[in-house]
Amino acid sequence: MADVVTWDERYALGFDEIDAQHQALFTLINDIWHAQVRGADRATVDALIGRLERYTREHFAAEEALMRSEGCPEIAAHLAEHQQFIHRVALEREHLGERGVVSLDMLHFLRDWLVSHILRADAAYARFLEQGTPRPGFALSRFFTRFLG
Ligand SMILES: [Fe+2]
């Protein structure tokens, strides 16, 4: 079954934990599409969008805390983009309708948004982190454990 979005090494920011979270988001988008193609019922699709919404919130919260803790620039604009994406996913869930159909257009929108956000906004903070001197005892893996277990 074809995927909506395929991971590409171009999207890797070089921080394993962050890259893994972005890959998980791609998988969740593909899961929604696969459920649609299978003809899954409304409850199943609703649950999958709910999962995407929850994971997105957790991932964004982790990214935002990381940016704050490391003093990354342009946090406000980055947060505004996150809010926009969460709003769009939540809206889609609200308007799922009786048949529980998510359009391929919508999934393409989520894909395009994520890819361009990663390549531009996330790549900017990744570059900033790379250039900074890590604080003593700072470990990204430990940092994210607080958010995503
Ligand atoms: Fe981001």
From TrEMBL:
InterPro entries: Hemerythrin, Hemerythrin-like, Hemerythrin-like_sf, Hemerythrin_metal-bd
Source superkingdom: Bacteria
Keyword Signal in record: no
Pfam families: Hemerythrin (PF01814)
Presence of the UniProt keyword Iron in the record: yes
Record-annotated Hemerythrin-like domain positions: 14-126
GO molecular function: metal ion binding
Keywords: Iron, Metal-binding
Membership in a protein family: Belongs to the hemerythrin family.
Protein's organism: Rhodocyclus tenuis (Rhodospirillum tenue)
Designated name of the protein: Bacteriohemerythrin
